[in-house]
Specification:
alpha/beta, single chain, disordered N terminus
Length: about 350
Amino acid sequence: MAERKQGKQKMDSPKISVIVPVYNSIDCLEKCVKSICAQTYSNLEILLIDDGSTDGTDRLCEQLAKEDCRIRTYHKKNGGASSARNMGIGIASGEYLGFVDSDDYVEPYVYEKMMKALAEGGYSVAQISRDEVDEAGRRLPDVCVPPQRKEFCEAQVFVKELLLHRGDCSFCTKLLKKDVLEGHQFPEGELNEDFRLLVELLQEMEGIVILPEQGYHVVCRKESTTRRKTKDSFSRVFLDIVDNADRMQELVDSKYPALHVYAVRFNLFQRLDYMLHVPVSQMRRDNVFYQKVKKYLRGHLRDTVTNPYLTKKNKGYLILLTIAPKAVRRVHGWKMRYEKQQ
């Protein structure tokens, strides 16, 4: 048996429970877990929630637990990342919670810096900035641009940033007091679960302190949940983002009326994303969801033209997809295939 590593525990500092949902991650889990074990903030427990892996990842979890006494492994029937996270929250003994996806990794300073930011400002939630890398570790364009310095973002401002697709809704980049989640859980059976839960929580908090360091590394793998395997494949995520847009419109109109124009922009953009991904074969009269999206676009054509927060390109695509969706999608598909061949 490998020697169990005993990290230097600062027993007078709060414990952080880091929850890692695991499913068939045998090729990347070790790098992920070791990056958490290497944290300069050592009073951690690392909860590996094996969500019914079938590729030997379950055995790797047990082996990793033998190498560091802070790691605890649990196995459950497959139910998705949200159910694994919810199980981890129920088991966690720490006062603070962090989340890491099993194919990502973190820099050693991440939890120490976030804990320091929480303590200095008396905040409940901290966020480290992130970057995106490919499987070879090469940097990709930033999805979320980090601030130049530490800043506190009030809840309503954070909602606005989410509506403009500039905010980071991921829980993996955050450290939060466990009691913030009291009465809440990750919605199971959805692929846009972080967004939905974060919006719920923002209604109950003052805001989030954001750090500029890009210490969380999102690894963009070829087999993503949104990648289409065939021309007729369609990820559930594109349905969920439209449903979330509707929820956001209702929330904004009732709680943040000053953000109405941003919510309309968000609704139109999410539907644009759906229309650019739904297979042409599913753009049928008997597809109720597709017909609802098309009806919304036609009913909001004026908003498309006048909304100041949509780009000219966004507006152009939305107008064309409102007028002749199938024809536009076919032309768009030919254009993408041509550019791929060049």
